[in-house]
Design goal:
Aminopeptidase, alpha+beta, eight-stranded mixed sheet, binds coenzyme A
Length: 167
């Protein structure tokens, strides 16, 4: 019964600010133990004007985050990072963060990169409608290839009503 309740616990996807620096950096280190961003990059992501930053709040605690950059000259949004607390995975939180970030970016196309070995993330992006468009050889610090994926947003998709409260 308790597990069922956890699975349907309401998640609020809301904007993150510089006040969330500690919480987001802690999540970043948990989610990317080998190549987490330094705190200064997290702070930049939480303050740059062309950046969308969202956190997922579950039971009053930050359970996940996402950062997206707008590149208006390219007509493109880029998902820069996304992570969900290891204890809160497989509850649809990343999917909801991604959906809201795509809406808030408001760009006709959205791209991202992921490690070739990151099969869980690959599945998430496949299901969200991303297509692989390129491979960046040895893109990551350990020499692993980066897969570039792109989603062409459906017409009107970026203008949907914001759905910050999701169940
Ligand atoms: C990848 C990550 C963000 C997914 O977060 P999440 O909240 O668990 O993802 P969701 O629950 O929204 O997953 C939605 C769907 O994606 C797929 N998926 C997500 N994680 C998966 C995994 N580890 N294995 C297989 N499929 C997975 C599933 O189809 C899932 O639906 P289901 O649970 O009903 O089967 C999370 O595992 C994470 O933070 N990983 C470490 C950081 C990272 O790799 N970020 C991505 C960098 S590109």
């Amino acid at each position: 019964m308790a597990a069922e309740h956890q699975a349907v616990a309401p998640v609020a996807v809301v904007p993150a600010t510089w006040r969330d620096l500690r919480a987001v950096w802690d999540l970043e280190k948990l989610c990317f133990p080998d190549d987490s961003w330094p705190w200064i990059d997290v702070l930049a992501a939480l303050t740059f004007p062309e950046t969308v930053r969202l956190k997922a709040m579950l039971e009053g605690q930050p359970a996940g985050f996402i950062v997206g950059d707008r590149r208006r000259h390219e007509g493109m949004g880029w998902i820069a990072t996304i992570g969900v607390h290891p204890d809160r995975r497989r509850q649809g939180i990343a999917r909801r963060l991604l959906e809201q970030c795509e809406i808030d970016l408001g760009m006709p196309r959205v791209r991202l990169t992921l490690r070739r070995s990151n099969l869980g993330a690959r599945r998430l992006y496949d299901l969200a409608g991303y297509q692989q468009i390129d491979v960046w050889n040895r893109y990551y610090r350990n020499g692993e290839d980066g897969l570039v994926m792109e989603k062409v947003m459906p017409p009107g998709g970026a203008s949907q009503d914001e759905r910050r409260l999701v169940e």
